[in-house]
Write a structure and sequence with these properties.
alpha/beta, eight-stranded mixed β-sheet, 431 residues, six-stranded mixed β-sheet
């Protein structure tokens, strides 16, 4: 019995060592930040700015030259930069802690059509990965389930909370559909031709999606007393209260997905990944459909694509009038989400104006998620979710966050990584 007690105490001790930083207390004192260059998140900049916030809400945004009384604690930030909290789209933060430990993996559910599966209730607000986002300015995220044809329902969280209830900013914002590809390639490792060719399964797979939404619409219209969770979960798509995020690549596939959705009266759409979206920009603009791009640090999909297509696509789409965001889907997405500002910086390095690159992960991201009334830009009345950087936050060399606030609360920027860095910095300094 004593040995068992020792083991329990040991794991409790280890758990406390590596637990997330304690969430900050509610803002009780007004804060004024003056002198910094403010990047408002809507394309505008204010040099020598003054930002004030009280009770978690921004109360003043303007020039520090204005004769106005500063409120509460004054933070001098000359030579620094202020940004709205960055927003990670299409992320799986908090759903998986250790890939090799099945019990800590809630990324996907068994089944093919799972609109009723909610990522929010599986979100671990105390994840080590969540806390490691904040030192780079990533303060909010859309948490998205994966797997199947319909993966489930996402929600939007802020990254300073004890639990998913406290973290939630917008609950069940969208359902996520993985659209099939119209081309397939042979298994080269079995000696099959690896060249792309039309997939004979594509019409069948599209028909399965069509049948599901047909049945769902009929079920909702029938007002049946018999509960069918997957069908009932689609109600928001048909009444416009929820968005449908379609994860799709290819000109034909994007067109087919939009056409089918419109036939069902589902008009609140977002295209995710969107390889080939630049070929159907007229369709996207006409139907007011945003595109969430994948991370740019990858090779183009097709041999005849320009080498820098993945770097210039954001500018190409924005120039055509498409609302663009930046998503985290891809290999090791949870780890790479902390690099969100640097992916936006890559788009800026390849032609996109710097403030428009900031918009990708602030104001425009908030518009795509439907939270722009409370987040995404530095404006009076919005949540005081923002941070101060020593330099350009899109440049990994100068993205050095000195202070950050979520809904007015001054949050800790420590994580298990910064703790280890400080520990071993001291070790090698003494040698």
């Amino acid at each position: 019995m004593k040995n068992i007690l020792k083991i329990v105490l040991f794991f409790a001790f280890v758990g406390n060592i590596f637990a997330q930083q304690t969430p900050a207390s509610k803002q009780t004192t007004a804060i004024s930040i003056e002198g910094a260059t403010a990047h408002l998140g809507n394309g505008q900049i204010i040099e020598n700015s003054l930002i004030m916030f009280v009770d978690g809400k921004i109360t003043f945004v303007g020039s520090a030259m204005m004769k106005i009384a500063r409120m509460g604690t004054i933070i001098k930030a000359e030579g620094k930069h202020i940004y709205p909290g960055f927003i990670a789209l299409d992320a799986t933060l908090g759903l998986v802690e250790i890939d090799a430990v099945k019990a800590s993996d809630d990324e996907s559910e068994i089944g093919i059509m799972n609109p009723h599966v909610r990522s929010l209730i599986a979100y671990n607000a105390e994840s080590k990965l969540v806390e490691s986002m904040r030192p780079n300015g990533v303060l909010m995220a859309q948490i998205v389930p994966k797997g199947g044809t319909i993966s489930g329902t996402s929600s939007i969280v802020q990254m300073d909370a004890w639990n998913w209830e406290d973290a939630a900013i917008k609950v069940d914002d969208a359902i996520h559909l993985n659209w099939p590809g119209s081309f397939t390639s042979g298994r080269w490792w079995l000696g099959e031709d690896p060249a792309l060719k039309p997939s004979p399964e594509y019409p069948k797979n599209v028909e399965k999606i069509n049948s599901f939404f047909t049945d769902a619409k009929q079920y909702l219209a029938s007002k049946s007393d018999k509960k069918h969770l997957p069908f009932a979960a689609t109600k928001g798509l048909f009444d416009g209260s929820q968005k449908l995020f379609i994860h799709v690549n290819g000109e034909k596939e994007i067109t087919d997905a939009i056409t089918m959705s419109k036939e069902f009266g589902i008009s609140n759409l977002v295209i995710v990944r969107g390889e080939g979206a630049e070929k159907v920009t007229d369709l996207l603009v006409k139907n007011n459909i945003p595109v969430i791009l994948n991370r740019p640090h990858r090779n183009p999909n097709n041999e005849d694509d320009a080498y820098d297509d993945t770097y210039t696509i954001a500018k190409t789409l924005q120039d055509k009038g498409v609302l663009v965001g930046l998503g985290m889907e891809g290999q090791m997405d949870r780890m790479n989400t902390r690099n969100l500002p640097f992916y936006a910086g890559t788009f800026a390095a390849f032609g996109l104006e710097k403030e428009k690159a900031v918009q990708l992960i602030t104001g425009d991201a908030a518009k795509i998620l439907g939270i722009d009334a409370l987040a995404g830009t530095l404006e009076v009345g919005k949540d005081a979710t923002l941070f101060i950087s020593e330099g350009d936050a899109l440049d990994m060399r100068t993205n050095i966050i000195s202070e950050a606030f979520i809904q007015g609360r001054k949050i800790s920027l420590e994580s298990h990584q910064t703790t280890l860095w400080k520990r071993y910095a001291e070790k090698f300094k003494s040698e």
